[in-house]
Design goal:
- This protein starts with a strand and ends with a strand.
- By secondary structure, it is an alpha/beta fold.
- Helix 5 crosses helix 9 (161-176), helix 13 (249-257) packs across helix 17 and helix 15 (274-284) packs antiparallel against helix 16 (288-295).
- The strands form two sheets. Strands 7-6-1-2-5-8-9 form a seven-stranded mixed β-sheet, sandwiched between helices.
- It is built from 20 helices and nine strands.
Length: 403
């Protein structure tokens, strides 16, 4: 049996995601199993997930995945490079996954690998430094630096968000020498961040979230995968959805106003002074939208600022980023997924944590990560529409869902 691994957020899960699951089985065999490494309660763009991790994992298994593992928090809310590396490490640590599958704009694994090799080339850092001196955005400087090492058409792949993630997946596989086969499938439907809805086209997750923000609930539900729409309705009825960062806006602003400049400096990995802009904005802004608009620069994407704000709120620090993923935590599984878990108990490179209390038997790194996850889960719950549903300690109570 082939076992495919897919790195996901499912925020929310839509028909484009279902298509990828179906295509994976069509190409690898109908008896192929699918393992997803999924972000927990917070996502890579520096935001709260629309639904809690257990709900999204349930919808994933009901939509075609066999096993959903959690992508640990520090990697889930980091740059594309670290997000991709965390996902690759999670899947590789299983000991059962043989193929990494992802959707991309180009659908050309060989081209993505060529760009990844260029980013790992010894000449690339010097080329990037020269391009950054021109004052353009990091993304533009990186693309020009890569263009000196590969063809212009290959370098242009760095303009597309899913291609960028595909390059980072390939880079992680190459750097860590992980022997997974790579299957890049063409992305269908709207572009990654497209807000507009087009007749006959699958909406992006961004567009679905925008519909919910605008109060267009029914339209949003129609664009979700059926299982996701059903789970969303149940979570909404329980007072746990929808979850947006703005639900905790005052708490986030209060956290930023309580921070000193040295606290902001600890969030700025590049030490380029971006933290000073964020510090000044944090002391005056009266909304998150104003904060991001005041602090943003031409050079860096707004997502980087959002991640810095989220890291501040959650009490994370780039300087103490974990070295390796210390355990695998299942969120949901079906019968095939349970069989995979049984295999993983012997084949996995790290412990498989099915009972939260078992983390106390693991090492210090595992316990520190789990405690960090538990605190973040409690802060996430405070963004539920109904605070009566936001009791703390959920991570210590919730085991994997078996469907």
């Amino acid at each position: 049996m082939r076992v495919a691994g897919i790195i996901v957020e499912y925020n929310p899960l839509h028909m484009g995601h279902v298509h990828l699951l179906r295509e994976t089985r069509r190409l690898l065999g109908e008896d192929a199993a699918v393992v997803c490494a999924m972000s927990g309660d917070f996502v890579q763009r520096g935001d709260f997930a629309l639904l809690r991790r257990q709900a999204r994992a349930m919808a994933a298994v009901q939509s075609g995945a066999d096993l959903v593992l959690e992508l640990p928090l520090p990697w889930a809310v980091s740059s594309a490079e670290r997000f991709a590396d965390g996902g690759v490490c999670t899947l590789a640590s299983c000991g059962v996954v043989d193929t990494l599958v992802f959707g991309s704009e180009c659908g050309d694994a060989a081209a993505l690998r060529r760009v990844a090799l260029a980013l790992l080339d010894g000449d690339f850092p010097a080329r990037l430094r020269r391009e950054l001196q021109r004052g353009d955005s990091f993304a533009a400087a990186r693309q020009r630096a890569v263009a000196g090492l590969v063809s212009a058409s290959d370098a242009a792949l760095l303009e597309n968000p899913n291609d960028i993630l595909g390059v980072e997946y390939c880079k992680s596989l190459l750097r860590r020498r992980v022997p997974l086969e790579v299957l890049a499938l063409p992305r269908l439907g709207a572009a990654h961040d497209a807000q507009a809805l087009k007749p006959g086209q699958n909406a992006s997750a961004s567009a679905i979230r925008a519909l919910l923000r605008a109060g267009r609930r029914q339209e949003a539900l129609e664009q979700m995968a059926p299982a996701m729409a059903a789970v969303y309705g149940a979570e909404e009825a329980a007072g746990r959805a929808p979850v947006f960062l703005e639900n905790c806006e005052r708490a986030v602003l209060a956290r930023l106003r309580a921070m000193g400049e040295e606290d902001f400096a600890a969030l700025d990995e590049g030490r380029e002074g971006l933290y000073r802009r964020l510090c000044r904005a944090g002391r005056t802004a009266v909304s998150l939208a104003e904060l991001l608009e005041t602090a943003r620069t031409r050079r860096y994407a707004r997502a980087r600022l959002r991640r810095m704000v989220l890291w501040a709120y959650l009490g994370l620090r780039p300087g103490i980023f974990p070295g390796e993923i210390p355990y695998l935590r299942p969120l949901a599984a079906n019968e095939t997924g349970r069989a995979l878990l049984a295999r993983m108990r012997k084949a996995a490179g790290v412990p498989v944590l099915t009972k939260p209390a078992d983390v106390r038997r693991l090492g210090g790194a595992a316990q520190a990560l789990f405690s960090q996850e538990a605190r973040a889960a409690d802060l996430y719950a405070l963004a539920y529409p109904d605070l009566a549903a936001a009791a703390g300690g959920s991570l210590w109570r919730d085991g994997p869902l078996i469907l």
